[in-house]
Description:
Blueprint: E1 2-6, E2 26-27, E3 30-31, H1 32-40, E4 47-50, H2 55-58, E5 63-65, H3 77-85, E6 92-97, H4 107-118, E7 122-126, E8 130-138, H5 142-150, H6 156-162, E9 166-169, H7 184-191
Parallel strand pairs: 1-4, 1-6, 4-5, 7-9
Antiparallel strand pairs: 2-3, 6-8, 7-8
Helix pairs in contact: 3-5
Catalytic activity: Mo-molybdopterin + GTP + H(+) = Mo-molybdopterin guanine dinucleotide + diphosphate
Subcellular location: Cytoplasm
Keywords: Cytoplasm, GTP-binding, Magnesium, Metal-binding, Molybdenum cofactor biosynthesis, Nucleotide-binding, Nucleotidyltransferase, Transferase
Amino acid sequence: MSGIVLAGGRARRFDLSGQIDKGLLLLQGQPLVQHVVRRLRPQVGPVLISANRNPEQYVHWGRVVPDALELEGYLGPLAGLASVLDQVTTPWVLSCPVDLPFVPSDLGKRLSRAVEEQGAVAAYVQAERSHPLCLLLRADQAAVLKAYLLSGERRVMNFLQSIGAIAVDLRDAPEHAFFNINTPQDLDQAQSW
């Protein structure tokens, strides 16, 4: 499977101006993207980074893929996922948002087991809450996803329901495994761990 780090957002909850690139924020002296890639790399083959700015920095951690032209205008994280799906050569992709620096080292294995057992085309994390972008997705869903976006839809959970994605209970994951860094306060809290 290929690894996908979703780093194309505008980080509006972190900074209303949209000027901060959250993936490049430092946690313990390293960019968030580096933390996520370090967690994903042992689980995947190629690593691709969905990023719409600062490609010259993100290229240090993987192949950078901006949103496709036909998906221009900010269409959310599914646009990044759809754009990267067009570029992968593996049958499966494991995606993770750039603001989850503590994602489990067995995420891919556990989601893979679930799709294999249930014959699904996708599986996502259910912990204390749903994490639909911590996702294992069959790459042949690229056209379905692009059609969904071009129809005007944006909601991640609606897309996952439409393709029969399964929720995988990972409440037993290590503490903080799915902690999202969405605000400066979240980053401060994560620094203490």
